[in-house]
Amino acid sequence: LIVPFVNGFYYTFTDWNGFKTTKLVGFKNYSDSFADPRFWSTLQFTALFVVVSLILVNVVAFGLALIVTSKLRSKNFLRTFFFVPNLIGGVILGVIWQFIFNSALVALAEKYDWEPLKESWLQDTNKAFWALIIVTVWQASGYMMIIYITGLISIEPEIVEAATVDGASPFRLLTAIKIPLMAQAFTISLFLTMRNGFMAYDVNLALTGGGPFRTTEPISMLIFQEAFAFGHFGTGQAKAVLMFIMVAFAALVQVAVSKRMEANQ
């Protein structure tokens, strides 16, 4: 980890072409990165994608965890059913949902006259973002559900029984007992969801390819294209370092805030 990272950081100050360097160029690669409007547009999209997916994935995952830890007879089947999407590879997942959005939903919309679905969401600059969110939530919620299940079943039954005897309503039991006692599960799930959001690539590539008109292009896709499609390895590496700094800062802030909330419980 250390040697490639140091090498990569060094290459950002050179004219590296993927094979060798001939001279130092100082901060030129960084200045070119900041001057690139695509860098800012992809950064804006990535930030919005991370925030929205962070909220929705964890809300859905926590809801699923509450369902499968209830007294339902089919809860074991539901656990498996909700977790299965996480086992599907990102590229395959993107291809499957591309068919759903481009063909299946459009055909159903034409048959039943559903106006919002008559045109593929993947071809709409506004709806393509939400198509990505839907697929991301569908895939990631099952995995985060497992973490929340662990947090819920780790709560001492005696505490829940005592609160119930004292007359606590189900909502009060959830907000005052269960959520505070499983704060660590929220810390882990939020961190993993945020990391996955910043690293999103394969689903975006297979589902939209960054389109339409690069409105769903994440910063990870820009970095790959900058280096391997255009051959600008120095600039691509500089953008990768900038991405690393932003992700590290966001992760440290999130973990620090979550840990403080844990300590206050």
Question: Can you walk through the features of this model?
Answer:
The longest helix has 32 residues. The chain is mostly helical and 265 residues long. Helices cover 74% and strands 0% of the residues. Helix 2 crosses helix 12, helix 3 runs antiparallel to helix 9 and helix 9 packs antiparallel against helix 12. The mean pLDDT is 89. The protein is flat.
Q: Could you outline the blueprint of secondary structure elements for this entry?
A:
Layout: H1 2-11, H2 28-35, H3 37-68, H4 75-83, H5 90-112, H6 127-153, H7 157-165, H8 170-181, H9 183-198, H10 202-207, H11 219-229, H12 233-264
Helix pairs in contact: 2-12, 3-4, 3-6, 3-9, 4-6, 6-9, 7-8, 9-12, 11-12
Runs with pLDDT <50, length 5+?
none
Shape: flat
Number of strands: 0
Number of helices: 12
Q: Ends: how far apart?
A: 36 Å
Gyration radius from CA atoms, angstroms: 22 Å
The computed structural class is mainly alpha
The proportion of residues forming helix, as a percent range, comes to over 70%
What value does the average pLDDT take? 89
Largest sheet: none
Quick overview of this protein structure:
By secondary structure, this protein is mainly alpha-helical.
